[in-house]
Specification:
Number of domains: 3
Radius of gyration: 34 Å
Shape: elongated
Distance between the termini: 79 Å
Low-confidence stretches: none
Largest sheet: 5 strands, antiparallel
Strand content: 5-15%
Order of helices and strands: HHHHHHHEEEEHEHEHHEEEHH
Helix content: 55-70%
Strand order of the largest sheet: 4-3-2-1-5
Number of helices: 13
Length: 358
């Protein structure tokens, strides 16, 4: 019954009703608070009527502020789940700050109740306890610092797509608290990271790109050209390239004066790919379109394509990227070029051809 009423109040658009619903929700922490209330109620009855227990007054006060703190934290934790689903960033931050204030007020209340200023003997004990708690909860303190930094600088919010390469995390943020960040990964798994990890380690917020607020989605691919097939083109090669890419009714990506005898085939290939990419409808011209040669290595001469695609959604992006890669591989043959293959790959290919001919 209590749970049903709580859910109704939490689903209300009114903030006061939501707070009331979170307060009466029978969560584990709230149950602990009610148990403390019942326990102290029994102690008060015994003290008042039967005088069986000589309970210090400070203990009652400490119990009251402890119960109050527990209920505040329990309410804020429940509201955090609700506001995470509704993506109410400001309300979510207020809940986490309220938890900090509740803990801080409990510490202040503890110091006032036991009158630490007049009881000097408590200083050493408090110093030892404080040092131990600081060492035990150092990760929690780091998480609180990270939470404040990330929220103040607007680096993180519910629904953002983030990547944390070190922990193989790639997905959407579902929940943010003082100490943990919960991410729903695209492979349908769920990751929970300490908030401090996002501050101390490298993470990438991809949300602006996913919303189309950047130049596009980055595509970087490298094609290693086999050096054995690099050569100056002959007159016949030049005529064949003109017929395919310069003459005719289709789009012209090379000028007639660029295609001439003696020019390296990789030079013409790079020029063709660059102009083809510049005319591609899915390729953004900003911030740049690059088709550049990298340093040659044992695998050949690498041609790197560094562009930004206007397709932001993953299926559309991958489809467009695949089409570009397929076209580049197909056009290699037009210029008498081939991708690098290791000796084992070449041997396997030749054996397959022999078996097919047999």
């Amino acid at each position: 019954m209590c749970s049903r009423i709580s859910n109704r109040l939490l689903s209300s658009p009114n903030s006061f009703c939501q707070i009331l619903g979170a307060f009466i929700k029978p969560s584990a922490l709230a149950k602990t608070g009610w148990l403390i209330v019942i326990g102290f109620g029994i102690l008060l009855m015994l003290q008042a009527y039967w005088k069986l227990i000589d309970t210090p007054t400070e203990l009652y006060y400490l119990g009251c502020i402890t119960v109050l703190t527990i209920f505040i934290i329990s309410t804020c934790i429940t509201l955090t789940d609700v506001y995470s689903l509704l993506k109410k960033e400001e309300a979510l931050t207020r809940c986490q700050i309220t938890i900090l204030f509740a803990i801080g007020l409990w510490i202040i209340g503890f110091l006032l109740i036991f009158d630490i200023n007049q009881n000097k003997s408590y200083y050493l004990a408090l110093l030892i306890i404080g040092s131990m708690l600081g060492w035990i909860y150092k990760d929690t303190l780091k998480g609180i610092t990270a939470f404040v930094h990330l929220r103040i600088n607007h680096l993180l919010k519910i629904g953002d797509w983030i990547q944390v390469p070190k922990y193989n995390v790639d997905g959407e943020i579902r929940r943010v608290t003082l100490t943990t960040v919960t991410i729903y990964n695209w492979d349908t798994t769920t990751s929970s990271l300490p908030t401090s990890v996002l501050l101390t380690d490298h993470f990438i917020n991809v949300q602006r790109m996913a919303e189309g607020k950047t130049y596009g989605r980055q595509m970087i691919k490298t094609f290693s050209i086999n050096n054995k097939f690099i050569h100056p083109i002959s007159l016949k090669d030049a005529e064949d390239i003109r017929k395919r890419l310069v003459l005719g009714d289709g789009p012209h990506y090379l000028q007639d004066n660029e295609v001439r005898e003696g020019v390296l085939n990789i030079q013409l290939f790079r020029l063709y790919i660059y102009h083809w990419l510049m005319s591609h409808p899915d390729v953004s011209h900003k911030p740049w379109v690059l088709a550049r040669w990298m340093d040659p290595d044992e695998h050949g001469t690498p041609l790197q394509i560094y562009i930004y695609l206007k397709k932001y959604d993953l299926p559309e992006f991958e489809w467009s990227q695949s089409q570009i890669i397929e076209h580049i591989i197909t056009s290699l043959d037009w210029f008498g070029l081939q991708l690098f293959q290791s000796r084992s790959e070449v041997r396997e290919t030749s054996e397959e051809k022999k078996e097919g001919s047999v």
